[in-house]
Amino acid sequence: MDHRFGRAAPYALGVEEELLLVDAGTGELAHVSSGLVPELDSPAGTLMHDVYEALVESASPISRNAIDGTRTLEALRAEVRAKGGTPIGAGIHPAGPFGEAPHVVSERYREIGDQMRGLLRRTPTCALHIHVGMPDPETTIRACNRMRAELPVLQALAAHSPYWHGIDSGFATARAQLFRGYPRADIPRAFAGWADYEATMSAVVAAAGVADYTFLWWDIRPHPKLGTLEVRAMDAQARLGSVCGLAALVHGLAIAAAEATEDAEEIPREVLVESSFRAGRDGLDATVWHDGALRPIRALAAAAVDRARPGAVAVGAEAALEEVERILCDGNGAQRMRAAHAEGGMARVVERLVAESAEPLGVRSA
To answer: Can you give the CATH number for the domain in which 61 is found?
Structure first.
């Protein structure tokens, strides 16, 4: 398999966010991506379509750290607003009606629609994706194997979609549960090495009848075409500070995973899937399986910050980790949305999402 590992600077970072588009007056989904994206031309990064007309995806250029990468996303959000769009960060629209999900016309999205059928016509879903450049294929696999254990913590910290179709789902992230309905959208097993990964990809791609590995939507995956390890388990975020903190956490953890010399604990995929479910359901109040027992996700998150800190310091983004500590102290997006609903119902939830999505990034590089 061709790859681009080792082509960029070591552990270079890319940050991608999918943002919903809403009507500025009503707060309802605005299906305007096809009309809006051609008008967007920002030197800061890349703005593009995704599957849904009520969604725009933005991507930072290759960046040194999470703060620099998130700065470009801030500029891209401003560009969307300047062209008349109203973007919000959340896993799904809290009140979007079931089935209101028109798609962008493109060959890839037509193919995905043919595969997914009604699954893709429920409601748009939005995630935060973090890419970390890897030096070579074998290091990528080792880092991927080790980073699998971090996924429940990342999912709980980023949980930002408790409502679906106007009612409380009972989950901190309804997006994660919707996404699990797609094929090839879960947590991969650990791989013995690059050859094992390549053989598995060839078999799955053939069995699924798809073009390549980009049709595998795992929570974490090697991305040979970009030369990165990509973490995909997190809801999109309203606050840029949360985007920055989560990106810095993933970045630091990925650096630590790539540079680790001891063998990683072999955690069965089935155990991680259970922990992911619990993290998605209960958010920061979850307990998940770790070291032989169910343990509080908050304690595991604090330990993850400690593991990520040396890498964050090395790239000048230690300040961004304070945003993760802020989430642990003040609550994640799901908790803020439920608090807003208690204040003023669904209208207040959407109003707060719009306001938070326009807040400036207050984090500076070292």
So the answer is: 3.30.590.20
Task: Say how many CA atoms lie within 13 Å of 102 toward its Cβ.
Answer: 11
CA distance 200 to 139: 17
Number of domains in the chain: 1
Domain assignment of residue 3, yes or no: no
Return the sign of the alpha-carbon dihedral for residues 110, 111, 112, 116.
positive
- Cα–Cα dist 241/228, whole Å: 23
Task: Tokens for 139, please give them.
Answer: 């290091």
For residue 283, list its beta bridge partners. none
Q: Is residue 192 part of a domain?
A: yes
- One-letter amino acid at 355 equals A
Least confident of 65-74, 102-111, 306-315, 338-347: 102-111
Asked if residue 132 is part of any domain, the answer here is: yes
Q: Give the range of the structural domain holding residue 203, as residue numbers without chain letter.
A: 13-357
In a domain, 4, yes or no: no
Query: Is it the case that residue 44 has pLDDT exceeding 80?
Result: no
The pTM for the full model equals 0.97
| Alpha-carbon distance values, 311 to 12, 54, 94, 315 (Å) | 12, 36, 35, 7
| Among 49, 39, 171, CA closest to 110 | 49
